[in-house]
Amino acid sequence: MTSDLLSQLNDGQRAAVEYCDGAQLVIAGAGSGKTRVLTYKIAYLLQEKGLKPWQILALTFTNKAAREMKERIAVLLNQQDEARSLQMGTFHSIFAHILRVEAQHIGFQSNFTIYDQADSRSLVKSIIKELDLDDKQYKPASVADRISMAKNHLVLPDAFPQSSLFDKKLPKVHEVYSQYVMRCRQANAMDFDDLLVNTFLLFEQHEDVRRKYVERFHYVLVDEYQDTNYAQQRIILQLTRERQRVCVVGDDAQSIYSFRGANIDNILNFRDAYDDARLFKLEQNYRSTQNIVQAANSLIRKNERQIPKDVFSRNDEGERLQLKPAYSDKEEAIIVCNDIKRLRRQEQAQWSDFAILYRTNAQSRSFEEQMRKDNIPYRIYGGMSFYQRKEIKDVIAYFRLVANPNDEEALKRVINYPARGIGDATVNKIVQTATTYGVSLWTVITQPVLFHLDVTRGTAAKLENFRQLVEGWMGRTGTTDAYVLGHAIIQESGVALDIHSSRDPEYLSRQENLEEFLSGMQSFVESRREEDEGDHVALSDFLQEVALLTDLDSDGDEDQPKVSLMTIHAAKGLEFPTVFIVGLEENIFPSLLSTGSMRALEEERRLLYVAITRAERHCIMTCAKNRFRYGRMEEDEPSRFIRDINPEFLQVDQPRQQADDFGQSRLPWQQRGGSRSSEWMQNSRPVATQFRADPKPRAIPPRREEPSVNPFSESFERQLKMASGGRFKPVRQMAPASPSSSPSSGSSSSSPSSSLREGMVIEHQRFGIGTVVKVEGHGENEKATVEFRNAGTKQLLLKFAKFSIVR
DNA sequence: CACGTCACTGTTTTT
DNA sequence: CAGTGACGTG
Predict the structure, then answer these.
(1) Under 8 Å between Cβ of A152 and A159
(2) Backbone angles phi, psi at A119, to 5 degrees
(3) Taking Cα atoms as reference points, which of A521, A523, A526 lies closest to residue A542?
(4) Is A224 part of the annotated catalytic residue set?
(5) Closest residue (CA to C1') to nucleotide C9 in the complex
(6) Cβ-count burial of A139 within 10 angstroms (0-12 exposed, 13-18 middle, 19+ buried)?
(7) Cis ω before A590 (30° cut-off from 0)
C-alpha cells in the first residue's frame, strides 16, 4: 500500500514526503503538486510512521482547502473516520477551538463571541467618537487596519508607541488600541487577530497548557506558508520547537496577503528558526502548458526579492497568452462571454471549465450583466457573502446576544431593531456608563440603578422590557435546540414582523434569505443530532460554526456547471482549463494604492503571477480603454505588467471594430489602424475625445431575474452542509412566518389612550389610505403601525402624525 | 424618536 | 454609483 502511495509521486515529491526527521521547508512552484505532497505526507505519517490522526495538526488557509485535503486523504487511506479525526483546519478555526477549551486561563469565558471585520470597525469607530477625535484624521477603517497589523506582529498596546507601526502624526491610535482591547475583553469578544494573539499569549503564559498541546501534536504541517504572519509563525514555533517535526509548504512567488500581515520573510528565514531545517523544491508544473508557465516565469522574474527557482512544464507547448483590448468595460464583458461560448463549442468544454478573475470585487458587475443577457450560468464567489447581509447579520446578532449577552456590537445592533424606542441618545449613555465603570453594556442594562444610568422612567421601562426579552431566551438555551429557539427569537424579537411588513422586492428577498437561513439552521441541527445522538444542539454550537464560515468556503456546484467569477485572491489554490484575467489597467491592476512602493508593486506582480498560473490551457487577458467608475466614464491606460511579460509568449489582439456603432467615426486609438497593436498600447497619449459608453443603447427586452442562475440562492445551505461534514438531509420547506402568528409578548398589552384601534382605516396626509394593524404605547409615546395601500407599512407617532379616520 | 431627503465622499485584496 | 452622515419634519 505504502509503496503504492509513493509510486504515484515524482522524485522531488517523494523526497519531501519521506523526510520526517526534522523541520522541513517545501518550496512548491505553482502547479507542482503542493497539495499532493501534503496529503500523501499525512497518509504516509499515518500508515508508515504509526501516528494517530489526532496527533497530526494541519493548518490551512481556507476551510475549503482543509475539507478537500481531508477528502483526498480519506480516499488515499480508504478510511473515512481516520481522516475525520485529523486536526485539520484554518489557523483561525483550530485556534478558536483551543481558546474555547482554555478560555479561563486568559480571562475569557468559553462562550466568547468572534467579532468579524465589520464589528471591529464599528467598535473602533465608536471609540474614536467617544475620544472626540477627528474622524477625518483618524479614519476608522485605517485605524482598525493599523491595530490589526499590530496584533499580527504581536505588538500589544503597551509596546505600540515604541513600534514601527506608531505614527507620530496620529498619536492617539495608541489610545484607541488600548480602549479597543479593553472593550473587547468586557464584551467577552475576540476579533480574528485575537484568535492568534490570544493563542500565542495562552501558550506563552501557561507553560502547562503549551505542553499539553505539544504532547498532543506530534507533527505539524502548514499549507500556504508564504501567507502566514508573524503571530502565526511564532505559534507554530511554540508548538514545534522541541520536536522540530514540522513541515511547511509554500511558494514565495505566490505571497499575496501582506495587507493582512503576511510576511514573506517567514518563508525566506525559515531556516533561521529551526536548527536543521531542510529545503525541498518542487519545480515541475503539471497544471499548465509550457507557454503559460514561461509567460508567468518571465513576469515574476521582474521581482527582486525571491527564492530562485526554475519552474518548468513538460505539457504541450500550448497557445500563447492573449491580450484582448476592449473599448469599454461593457465590450470587455462581451469579448469574454463570446470567447467562453466559442471555446465551449470548440473544445466541448463545460461552463465550469472557465473562470473570470479580477482584481476587485466591484469589477464583477459588467460580467454579471453580460452573462445574464447571454444565458451563461455563473457563480460569483466572495463579494457580499450571505451572512453579511443586513437581515442575516441582524438575526445572528440576536443569537450572539443570547449566547453572550456581553457582546457589545451585537447589543448595539439589535437593541433598537426593530424600533423599540431606545435611540442613539440612550445607547450613548449606556456606553458611557459602561466605560466609566469598566463593565459591559449588558451589565449596565441589568442594573441601571446601581450604575446611576441617567434615563427617564419611560426609557428605563423600555430597557427593562428588552432585558426581559433577552433573558427569556437565555433561560431557554439549555433546554431548547438551536433551530426552535432561533425561530422563536426571530418571531418574538419582532424581526419577522418587520421583514414581512412590506411587499417591495427588497423585503421579499430578505424574507427569502431569512427562510434560507432558517432552513440551513435546521439542517445543521439535524445533522448534528445524528452525530451526537440525542444531545440537544445549542444555539452557541450553531454560532461557532457560522462565525468562521466564508462564502468562499462553499464548494463549486456539482449539480450544475457554472462559470466562476472571483477575485484573484479568492482563486488562490484553484485551477481552470481557461482563465480570463480582466481589467489589466493601470490603477486597477496594479491598484492605485500599490504603485507607491516597490514592495507593494512586487506583491501586485505576484498577484498577476498567481492569476496566470491558475490556467491550464488558455489564459486570456483583457483591458478596457474606458471604464465606468465613480459614476462617470474614465479613461484607463493598459497595465504596466503587460510589458513585463516576454512578448514571445504573448499575443496582442487588435481592438475590435464595432462596425454598426462606430462605423463612421474612427476611434482615436485606432487612428493608424495597421498591424501593430493600437496606439494607446504603445503608451502614447490617447487623444482626448468624448465618448459614451454605449452610444446606441441596444434594445434589450427587460429581463426578469433568472432564477436558475441566481448566484446566491444556494450558498448558505451549501456552507452549512460543508460545515456539518457534508452529511445533511434535505429539509422540508419552512412556512414563511406570518406577521399575525405571534403577538410579541407583553409589550402590546397596554391599552392605547387615543381613539385609534386596530383594524381602522385612516387617510394620512402623505401616505394616503391605510389600515391600522397595531396600536401601542401611551400618551406622548403612543404609536401606530399602519399598512398603507401604496406606501408600505409605516410607524406613526400619533403625537405628530397628520391623518383622518376614514372608518 | 423615526424616517426621509440630500449632500458628500471614497474607492483592494480576506481569515 | 453606492453607502454614509447630517439635517429637517411629523
Answers:
(1) no
(2) -60, -45
(3) A521
(4) yes
(5) A800
(6) middle
(7) yes
Q: What is the 3-state secondary structure (H, E, C) of A65-131?
A: HHHHHHHHHHHHHCCHHHHHCCEEEEHHHHHHHHHHHHHHHHCCCCCCEEECHHHHHHHHHHHHHHC
Q: Give the Cα separation of A153 and A145 in Å (integer).
A: 12
Q: Of A352-361, A424-433, A475-484, A778-787, where does the model show the most confidence? A: A352-361
Confidence of residue A464 (pLDDT cuts 50, 70, 90): very high
Residue of A584, A579, A670 lying closest to A619 (CA atoms): A579
Cell 409605516 found at: A794
Whether A762 shows a pLDDT value over 80: the answer reads no
Is A727 annotated as catalytic?
no
Q: What is the pLDDT of residue A67?
A: 87
Residue nearest to nucleotide C10 (CA to C1'): A800
Q: Dihedral sign, CA of A447, A453, A458, A462?
A: negative
Contact A395, A492 (CB under 8 A): no
| Cβ neighbours of A153 (radius 10 Å) | 18
Closest by CA position to A115, among listed A384, A396, A392, A385: A396
Query: A59, A248 in Cβ contact below 8 A?
Result: no
This prediction has a pTM of 0.81
Asked whether residue A800's C-beta has any atom of DNA/RNA strand C within 7 A, the reply is yes
Q: Which of A9-18, A127-136, A354-363, A686-695 has the lowest mean pLDDT?
A: A686-695
Q: Which of A289, A305, A312 is nearest to A253 (CA)?
A: A305
Strand C contacted by A802 CB (< 7 A) = yes
Can you give the distance from the CA of residue A47 to the C1' of nucleotide C3 in angstroms? 55
> Cα separation of A86 and A65, whole Å?
14
Is A504 exposed, middle or buried (CB count within 10 Å of its CB: 0-12, 13-18, 19+)? Answer: exposed
Closest CA to A84 of A64, A102, A59, A66: A66
With H, G, I as helix, E, B as strand and everything else as coil, classify residue A439: coil
Q: CB–CB of A420/A466 below 8 Å?
A: yes
Instruction: Clarify whether A223 is annotated catalytic.
Output: yes
| Residue whose grid cell is 494517530 | A52
- The Cα A607–Cα A346 span in angstroms is 30
Q: Which residues pair with A375 in a beta bridge?
A: none
Q: Which residue has the cell 483546519?
A: A89
Closest nt to residue A630, judged CA to C1': C1
How distant is C1' of B6 from CA of A382, in Å?
Answer: 32
C-alpha cell at A769: 389610505
Preceding amide of A739 cis, omega within 30? no
CA nearest A223: which of A427, A432, A65, A395?
A65
Q: How far apart are CA A793 and CA A75, in angstroms?
A: 56
Instruction: Indicate the burial class of A24 (C-beta count within 10 angstroms; 0-12, 13-18, 19 or more).
Output: buried
Question: Nearest CA to A213 among A344, A105, A312, A81?
Answer: A105
Distance CA A587, CA A589 (A): 6
Q: Using 50, 70 and 90 to split pLDDT, how confident is the model at A788?
A: low
Q: How far apart are CA A513 and CA A494, in angstroms?
A: 17
Q: Measure the CA angle with vertex A584, ends A657 and A660; round to 5°.
A: 15
Identity of the amino acid at A50 = G
Q: Quick check: is A34 catalytic?
A: yes
pLDDT tens string A490-513: 989 888 888 877 666 667 777 888
Q: At what angle do helices A505-532 and A482-492 cross, to 10 degrees?
A: 150
Give CA A345 to chain center in angstroms: 34
